Amino acid sequence: MPPFIECSPPQGGRAVLLSIKPRYSQLIVAGVKRVEFRRAWAAEPVRAIAIYSSSPEQKIVGLIEVKSVEVASLTALWEFNEELGGG
């Protein structure tokens, strides 16, 4: 089995609300942070994410389109993140 399983977002995928701490949501909106790790993900395909900046901001700060979802081991995900310039 390859280290990554890439899933392109389907045309009719759903939109989800993702709660992220203000520090990281600001980096995402600024385009600095391009990868978000989650232990669990939606059971159905996702095409868009509304970014909710949690307390103390408590507001939606952006809407992003999902390019791909990667499922892999922790080591493989960190290597993938480093290739994208993440930390």
From TrEMBL:
SUPFAM superfamilies: PUA domain-like (SSF88697). InterPro entries: ASCH_domain (IPR007374), PUA-like_sf (IPR015947). Residues 18-75 form the ASCH domain. It comes from the Bacteria. Pfam families: ASCH. This is ASCH domain-containing protein.
